[in-house]
Amino acid sequence: MILAVVKDLAVKFTKEQLNEAAAAFETDRSNLLSVEGKDEGEILSNLLVAAFVRTRMDKGMAMQDAIREYSSRVRGMIAPKK
Q: pTM for the full model?
């Protein structure tokens, strides 16, 4: 995930546009929004994270808070349980 790309996408596009672009990329690797990324996984990650962030922003959450929430969820998934 490239944070600057995610922020840019979340500001420029609606959650519907982001979800549509992610679905198209998953289906046939169409990069409808010309998303940057070093490989296909990073491009898809940027789209999915931007869609998550935009969804939270549409509900009134600040972008930074939405990014923190996403990061916290990821850390929760990969951190070993104590």
A: 0.90
